[in-house]
Amino acid sequence: MAEQKEIDNQKLKEVKKDELVEEVKATEDIKEMEDKNMKDKKEEKKDKKKVKTPAEPNRSEAVVNGRDLRISTKHSVAVCNFIKNKNIDDALAHLEEVSKMKRAIPMRGEIPHRKGKMMSGRYPLNAVKVFILLLKSLKANAINHELELEKVKLACMANVASRPMKRFGQGKHKRSHVQIKLIPMGAKKK
Question: To the nearest 5 percent, what fractions of the chain are helix, strand and coil?
Fold first, then answer.
């Protein structure tokens, strides 16, 4: 009987050792699984961060926005109509001529007539200076976007901006928003 008990005790010890070994292996497997899960989660976070970054901007157009410019909206609309659908270099050259008062910008309304092929026109020098700066900025933007300047044309739009009051409430200042785009030659307006 005593021998039987010793054999049973030895078998129990072996079974307990086997169980302990299995538990250790199981805990090691669990740790490995947790490590893998942590690595997967880190990779997913990296992937999510990559997804959250904004997509590449549209490189087929270049845009410059002038906000709250201190120019007349009437003059800015006339200049926009003057440079619309032109090449950026031609537009800059024509605006340089206007700033030297060699060429007038066509305008509508009761405005005196000018010599040449146009009906009525003026020389809006303040607006032309601002437009020259905007066009130079747009040209730099287009070069940065790697656009071919020969294959794009200008699209321009001027709007009325909020007009702050002058001193003592005597009137309002002139303010305009201007957006100039370089779009491909074959593109149509939406």
Answer: 55, 20, 30
